[in-house]
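Retry 2 of 3 after timeout on previous attempt. Resubmitting structure tokens to design endpoint.
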């Protein structure tokens, strides 16, 4: 599906979707429980449905009841009857790899072509160090994966600079082992706020995970029980596109609702926009960020902890005065696509001046004049949404190929844009 975006002004109020990160973790945490849990106000998307499928495969149940996931826990996972297809969801595959390491038999995990290109080697090595079985069928650390257990051992070390999801997988599974698990970090942890999201959610489910001098640790034989229900907060990764739209095109102001404070690292988008000169205010009690069109200036941003913000920041940089340097970004290349190169290539098609290095992206806003063009969303929801925001201030119509991929994290994205005044045509 193509999306055509014409230059537009935005105004009014719009609500950020529920958090994908919290929804994934909540569905799986409820699966680790032994009763029924209602996951309320979740993100219902292709990715989170993949996690629901995995919970069913391990012996649990997941039904969607009027926008609420009703999860019947499996407690200790059964060996699945069939291969688990994780679709395009790297979060699903990594988190349930930890689940598979608790089962007596073998679990086979696969996904689409994009997911089968993403690295999982450090997590597989950690499971083998814990006396489980964890193999890549192609012997390259990539899916399809064959994983089995039950794991044994109380301590494992893992690099922190590939994916924080490896740590999350081990902590969530470690709470269901008899002896618990200490996860030592061999290198600096990238995307650290995502582990804090995990710890925050685990606490809501009655599970304690702590920071240690070496990394993280979780006690064993813990029960997952949120008291019957858990409510998913709004998603700041998705809100970043709405806030960027406001900063670029809301002459009369835009209110983005559902933006309550949480452990999400991507709340940093508010600070980044303020540094760039955006006129905004955040009412944390009401969960509303108000923003209006502003003359932006380039800044330097370290995305070591917030990789999902790179596409948004690149778009903002293309419309700002001066240079926007996005640094500490090499790990952003290992997402649904190489987002560093993808944003460089597609923004250049739209007239932006860009310099790409292995671990950084510099957008030369002063040398950029955005114009409408036909661009490729690269099968990546975040690339599609960032390019749609760029289209608001480009000269002429921007056509984005593969627009349907917003279903991964923000299924109603284009409806939300229409609701605030964007001229969108889907074909």
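Retry 2 succeeded. Sequence:
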């Amino acid at each position: 599906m193509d999306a055509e975006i014409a230059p537009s002004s935005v105004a009014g109020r719009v609500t950020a979707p529920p958090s994908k990160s919290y929804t994934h973790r909540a569905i799986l945490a409820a699966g680790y429980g032994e009763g029924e849990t209602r996951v309320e106000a979740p993100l219902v998307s292709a990715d989170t449905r993949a996690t629901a499928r995995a919970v069913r495969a391990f012996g649990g149940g997941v039904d969607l009841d009027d926008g609420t996931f009703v999860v019947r826990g499996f407690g200790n996972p059964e060996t699945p009857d069939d291969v688990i297809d994780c679709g395009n969801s790297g979060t699903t595959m990594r988190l349930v790899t930890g689940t598979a390491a608790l089962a007596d038999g073998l679990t086979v995990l696969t996904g689409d072509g994009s997911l089968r290109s993403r690295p999982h080697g450090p997590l597989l090595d950690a499971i083998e160090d814990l006396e489980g079985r964890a193999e890549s069928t192609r012997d390259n650390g990539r899916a399809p994966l064959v994983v089995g257990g039950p794991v044994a051992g109380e301590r494992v070390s893992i690099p922190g600079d590939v994916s924080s999801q490896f740590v999350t997988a081990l902590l969530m599974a470690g709470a269901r082992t008899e002896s618990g698990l200490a996860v030592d970090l061999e290198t600096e942890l990238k995307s650290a706020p995502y582990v804090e999201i995990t710890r925050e959610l685990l606490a809501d489910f009655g599970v304690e995970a702590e920071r240690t001098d070496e990394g993280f640790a979780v006690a064993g034989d813990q029960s997952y029980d949120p008291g019957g229900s858990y409510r998913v907060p709004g998603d700041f990764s998705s809100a970043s596109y709405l806030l960027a739209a406001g900063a670029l095109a809301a002459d009369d102001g835009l209110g983005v609702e559902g933006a309550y404070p949480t452990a999400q690292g991507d709340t940093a988008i508010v600070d980044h926009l303020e540094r760039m000169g955006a006129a905004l205010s955040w009412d944390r009690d009401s969960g509303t960020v108000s923003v209006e069109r502003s003359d932006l200036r380039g800044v330097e941003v370290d995305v070591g902890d917030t990789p999902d913000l790179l596409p948004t920041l690149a778009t903002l940089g293309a419309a700002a005065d001066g240079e926007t340097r996005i640094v500490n970004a090499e790990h952003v290349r290992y997402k649904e696509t190489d987002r560093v190169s993808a944003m460089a290539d597609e923004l250049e098609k739209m007239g932006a001046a860009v310099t790409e290095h292995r671990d950084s992206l510099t957008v030369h806003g002063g040398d950029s004049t955005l114009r409408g063009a036909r661009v490729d969303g690269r099968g990546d929801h975040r690339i599609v949404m960032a390019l749609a925001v760029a289209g608001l201030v480009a000269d002429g119509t921007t056509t984005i190929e593969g627009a349907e991929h917003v279903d991964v994290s923000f299924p109603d994205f284009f409806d939300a844009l229409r609701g605030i005044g964007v001229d969108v045509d889907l074909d």
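Attempt log closed. Residues 130 and 152 are 5 Å apart (CA to CA).
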